[in-house]
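quick one, 799 residues, struct below
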Amino acid sequence: MRLIPTLLAGTALVALGACATASTVSVVETPETLAVAPGAPGVTPTWVNAAKTGAGASYEAYVDGRYQDGGPTGEVSKVWFSIADGVLTETMYGLIHEAQIKQLRFAVVTEDGLSVEGTDTTSRTEYLHVDAAGRPLSPAYRVITTDKAGRYEIEKRIYTDPDRQALVVRTTIRALRGDVTPYLLLEPHMANTGVGDQGEASTSGLYASEGGVHMALRASQPFAAASAGFVGASDGLADLADGDLDALYRTTGDAPGNIMLTGALPTIRAGQSLSRDFVIGFGDNGIAAVAAADSSLAIGLDEVLARFNGEGDRVGWEDYIASLDQLPRLAEQATDGGRLAYASALMLKVQEDRTHAGALIASLSNPWGDTVDATNPSTGYKAVWPRDFYQVAMALLALGDTETPLAAFRYLPQVQVDGETPGNTGAAGWFLQKTHVDGEIEWVGVQLDQTAMPIMLGWKLWKAGLVSDAEMTRMYGQMIRPAADFLVDGGTVGLLWNDRTITPPWTQQERWEEQEGYSPSTTAAVVAGLTVAADIARAAGDPSSAQKYQTAADDYASKVESRMFTTNGEWGDGRYFVRITRNENPNDKAPIGENNGQPAHAEDRIVDGGFLELVRYGVRAPDAPSILATLPEYDDQTREDRFRVRYDVNGVPAFRRYGNDGYGEQTDTGGNYGVGGEMHPGQRGRLWPFFTGERGHYELAAALHNPLADAGWTEARLNGVRQTYVRGMEAFANGGLLLPEQAWDGVGHPTAHDYQPGQGTNSATPLAWTHAEYIKLLRSLADRAVWDRYAPVEQLYAR
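---
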């Protein structure tokens, strides 16, 4: 089988000013290339480290609220990339979850032996395009990896072509001590798996395909040699174990599998360097993939970067950043000069699909990817959860982005259950737990906060003047009324495995997707959602529904303490909110369910920060007795590690999701979560940095709520929020200014990554929710008001 037509074998490559001088390098004689690589299908594939230090895509302008070619930014580029351990990792083309590359790295033969980038190097990640204050203006990166033994250094500049389906990797390799011979290693995972790929290699380029998706890596100068093989059997890295690439294969043949493509570069003499440009093109056939790559090379990669950045009269990332009229005043609230605020703005927009406008995902990562089987397609976190979606849309609105949140609101009906939902035979109005960005159903648990939050977002956009009265009336009939009706009436679900009957505010799953019952955080969202739904219903001319929604909200709000606040709990004086209770009696010490390998415990032994959402949305005042009573139990750092939630790390208040959380690395072995798809008793959920922001929001609300305080006292308290919680969240950012889902708490066996306390783990980085919480905390400080507070809710319940 030939992936690339024969006529392309002689296609001329465009050589740029990136080659080294003749005195710098020597070309090694290569052995004869054999036809077909043996060893199909190769070893079982996995993904890679999810602790990204970089993530990027081009900025694409909407055309009438949609993504389509021909607008100010030309052809819509649908390529995303990520960086971890100093190497290019998961790269997507098509929809945002459709990975095509596992990783691209270099193996370097040195005088002392073989060194592999990522494994045998240290790295740092920098932004290529920053303003005078060092704040990033685009997600283009400079990544420098340095051999731990000091023999070489590799600098890569990585960005996409905003006018083509192509990714640019501009590379300079420096021989610091002794001669070195580098080899480019490209591991495709086409069509979002690692088992169905076919590949070819020649000195003109490296090529891979699966089904209807093709990839071509082209270089500014030909490789010295090239090979295609199956990982673990005939791949170039295994061949290089003896220091020589001496088993070359032209193709992997007709048998698909887990493949690696290798391109040899010339030997670099000690003290010299070699520069090469590589462009990876994608397309629905081989010709299109080659054309995308070659066209980028032809136009000039400096020009491609200028277009990516939006320099001068070009439309790109600079234009998006400039459109965020609130970003400068938010940056003033930061303690790092605004660097993380600008990076967060970029990350939130990067993590939107470029086919389905407004489709906001949770993270460009596959959690604990280096032990996740890539045999079958997986979205990981590259999917839509309406809860994470709400957080991101609200943060974008806080930045002054008036287009993306509106597109997000208009996108939401695609993920709401109705009579047209494939396979649905039950209740309608609720929002799907997790979907692909095109609406394909993935998970179908009912989470009532995820049904309330689309209503809440719509109300905010309406009050901001971004949704007209006419559109809101239309969306009320289409989306908001069915959702609000479900929050009152519930119903019996009939979708895939789910046939449960939901009786609100009892939820099948709370915000951690693991337990059923009455949850403070879920109830807070439901009360807020119904209250603003009543406001919308009145404006839409439906007073009877408005009364129905408000009556239900009043009922749910009045029973918050009786349902979820224990008065005889195990901790402290026995008075605090529990994480969740399966019935309406929080004092009966009934167990909640087992999860993530952890045994069931009585409900009153599990505390979390969900009660703070009651204050955030305005369901309870910051000084409500139930809130004040729970804070000491949430903050207790003397409790045994299993049930302890708060850990101050490097002076930063940090929190786990809840006591007894098992969603994290193993304490006994340091191993990843869920290895082999199995749960283990030693698993432990770590610190989630966005809880630092949630606690900061509470402290801000408390500072603003005191009617007897003078201006000086209030300002001092708000400055304390800035110095403790804003600075604290900034401390969790890695070298690429990306914020993680989880950070290491230091409990248990160290992992293979040798994490330090407060360092992001291999769970998921960047997490959009964490970046969103940081942005919203800055906006709340700038406004002197909680950004997520809903005035009608506060007026009714937080007096």
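The longest strand covers residues 99-110.
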